[in-house]
């Protein structure tokens, strides 16, 4: 998810050409109309795509349930790209290494990981709020 300004929740979704779901009717329905407002960008190599964003001034934060920092405590700045990994597998090693930092969503209780759609929604909320406050 990419945000260029502190007030927009998401300007684009970047996926890989392989290992990502196709933009089918099922995906569109699950997105609840968001596909009409947020473009999907497909890249061949995510690490190279993230590096290109970094070269353009983006802060790149990867989500990892084992990260030492809570996303709410990370000093976020715009433009921002947040990287969410595959459910179960998480971030690939090169993707993880390309991120400026790793952060976790601090959840109460025994649950330490969410499915990617719930993680995305919570991340958008936390990041948008943090960017507005800074």
Q: How is the secondary structure organized here?
A:
Layout: E1 2-3, E2 13-16, H1 25-30, E3 40-43, H2 46-55, E4 59-63, E5 80-83, H3 93-98, E6 101-103, H4 116-133
Parallel strand pairs: 2-3, 4-5, 4-6
Antiparallel strand pairs: 1-5
Walk me through this protein's architecture:
It is a single chain. The protein is of the alpha/beta class. The protein has a single domain, classed as SPOUT methyltransferase, trefoil knot domain (Alpha/beta knot). The chain contains four helices and six strands. Strands 1-5-4-6 form a four-stranded mixed beta sheet. The protein has a two-stranded parallel ribbon with strand order 2-3. The longest helix has 18 residues, at 116-133. Residues 26-32 have low confidence and may be disordered.
Report a brief summary of the structure.
This protein is of the alpha/beta class. Helix content is 30%, strand content 16%.
List keywords for this structure.
two-stranded parallel sheet; 134 residues; globular
């Amino acid at each position: 998810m990419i945000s260029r300004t502190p007030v927009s929740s998401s300007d684009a979704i970047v996926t890989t050409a392989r290992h990502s779901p196709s933009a089918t009717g099922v995906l569109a329905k699950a997105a609840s109309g968001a596909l009409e407002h947020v473009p999907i960008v497909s890249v061949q190599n995510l690490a190279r795509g993230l590096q290109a964003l970094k070269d353009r001034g983006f802060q790149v934060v990867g989500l990892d349930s084992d990260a030492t920092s809570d996303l709410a405590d990370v000093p976020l700045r715009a433009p921002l790209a947040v990287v969410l990994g595959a459910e179960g597998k998480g971030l690939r090693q090169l993707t993880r290494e390309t991120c400026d930092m790793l952060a976790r969503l601090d959840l109460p209780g025994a649950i330490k990981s969410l499915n990617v759609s719930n993680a995305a929604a919570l991340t958008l909320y936390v990041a948008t709020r943090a960017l507005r406050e800074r």
